[in-house]
Here is the input.
Amino acid sequence: MDFTLEDISDDEIARRRAVFEPLVASVRELVDAVIRTEVDDEVILDAQRTVSSVVDALRSQQMDGAYGVRYTSNLVGMAWGNAVMGMRNAIAPPVHSTPDGGGVRAEFTLGAAYEGPPGHVHGGVCALVLDQVLGEAAAADNQASYTGTIEFRYLRPTPLGQLVARAEIVERTGRKKTVRGTLSDAGGITVEAEGLFIVPKDVPEL
Here is the structure.
């Protein structure tokens, strides 16, 4: 896996976040608004022209290919194009995890853009979120690892709205880590997940 090194300061990271996070939040609002709007055709056509103009402005200077994974010289990761938690990716669910004991926890809200069954989160989106959170939990011991397998158990439909995802390492055998996680709403767990993660051979064992 290739990584890009950007020798930038913490202040520069904060500056970039301050610029891009409001833009990405606005684009997420745009996606939600497009799904749920009931305005007249003229308003939609005018909106399309405005959006096209914005796209042209942003494309006037851009990188080739994907954003990739970037690190600062202090090994601060910037996976800002990531499909699940990329800071610059407006289609990514707004999932931002924080340390929680020996694992990680994320509180977030999923709206109309993530719907599957009426009023509920698409099962694939539930799996997407748990895949990310389990992967972050697998690295909570400061050892990067790759996903081997993940199994999901859907206990009941996950409603759109405020949700919590949590995961932690429950077993470690050599280079293999077993990680368990859950997705919950206010009424309790909706999805359970268990994953096997493998530490690469070029990473020293703890």
